[in-house]
Amino acid sequence: MNEPRTLAIDIGGSGIKAALLDGAGSMIGQRQRVPTPPKPIAPEQLIHAIEEAAAPLGAFERVSVGFPGYVRDGRVLTAPNLGTEALAGFDLESTLARHWGKPVRVLNDADVQGFGAIKGHGV
């Protein structure tokens, strides 16, 4: 297999979901889900829960994360459903990139969904 596998992470208020995607964006195997830690979530708790959801999925070459708050350049600015004070300023993108040694992109979860719907000529 020569095409890159993407680890797709969806962080939600009640659950963190993870799935592997092939080069065409189709899911490989079963998605995983773990409960979102209690609010307010400390950065270390968030990283641990993401790792727990991703661990059973196997190898990947890159990571895409949808986050339920305002994100700029991979850094959390607000996290209304998770605890803004605890996560404000947290560089989730760089932390996960260092953790896995892979390229990571973190965006607002609605933005990620919108990018997934685009077919090349708008929505």
Structure description:
The chain is of the alpha/beta class and 123 residues long. It has one domain: 2-Layer Sandwich (Nucleotidyltransferase, domain 5). It has helices spanning 43-54, 84-87, 92-100, 109-117; strands at residues 6-11, 15-21, 27-35, 62-67, 71-72, 75-76, 104-108. It has a 5-stranded mixed beta sheet with strand order 3-2-1-4-7. The protein has a two-stranded antiparallel sheet with strand order 5-6. A hairpin with a 5-residue loop joins strand 2 (15-21) and strand 3 (27-35).
Helical run tally = 4
CATH topology: Nucleotidyltransferase, domain 5
Tell me the number of structural domains.
Answer: 1
What's the overall average pLDDT, rounded? 92
Shape, principal axes of CA atoms: globular
Question: Which percent range fits the helix content?
Answer: 25-40%
Reading off the top of the CATH hierarchy, the class is best stated as Alpha Beta
Strand order of the largest sheet: 3-2-1-4-7
Q: Rg to the nearest angstrom? A: 14 Å
Give the SSE order as H and E letters. Answer: EEEHEEEHHEH
> Which parts are unreliable, with pLDDT below 50 for 5 consecutive residues or more?
none
End-to-end Cα distance, whole Å, is 30 Å
- CATH homologous superfamily? ATPase, nucleotide binding domain
The biggest sheet amounts to:
5 strands, mixed
Question: Could you tell me the strand content as a percent range?
Answer: 25-35%
- In the CATH hierarchy, the architecture is 2-Layer Sandwich
Count the E strands: 7
